[in-house]
Amino acid sequence: MSSSPDARVVTALHVAPGRRLPMRALAAVDAEAGAGLVGDRYHGSRHRHVTVQSAEQLAEAAARLGEPVPPEGTRRNVTVSGGRVVSVPGARARLGATLLEVVRVAAPCRILDDEVAPGAAAALHDRAGTVFRVVEGGRIAVGDAYEELPFDPAEAAERAARSRAAATPPRAHRLP
Questions:
Q1: Which of 24, 29, 126, 157 is deepest in the core (most CB within 10 A)?
Q2: CA distances from 48 to 35, 78, 153, 165, 176 (A)
């Protein structure tokens, strides 16, 4: 695969089969529309299908922390080269042929202080990546292109509202 020097690519892929279980590095993973990454703990969830982080922002966090922040240490699924990952709800990005839609910013978890080093959660504040849902599935592999699609803020907000409504379970009706 040839790419321009400015092209952003997938540099690491990780899944964990369960909460607090170790992340497993993969060369490729299948992403299912409406379900997420096959083999990951969030596969089948309503909204949290894939988390994507920036290798550049991991390096910034490591500089702040004074220790390395390995991609798997953050418990994010996909690490991409280059700057920030789009985080506007409803915005879209492609990982290879897979189409993703932003759900929300990913907040760093306090377990990072135990798993990476004390202070890791603070170092990752505003650098912890983005939570996406899978709109169109496919295979994602290390080396695949990462492309943020242009968007109109009003259209993105409308998509995000529809997505939230679709993911919200129906309320139980109360009898009088």
A1: 29
A2: 9, 13, 21, 14, 36
Return the structure tokens found at 35: 């379900």
pLDDT band at 115 (very low <50, low <70, confident <90, very high): confident
Distance CA 112, CA 99 (A): 29
Answer positive or negative: Cα dihedral of 23, 24, 28, 33. negative
What Rg value do the Cα atoms of the chain yield, rounded? 16
Pairing mode, if any, of strands 98-105 and 8-15? unpaired
% the chain with pLDDT above 90: 60
Closest CA to 72 of 1, 125, 12, 162: 12
Please compute, for residue 47, the number of CA atoms within 13 A of its CA located in the half-sphere on the CB side.
19
Residue 83 has which token pair?
């700057």
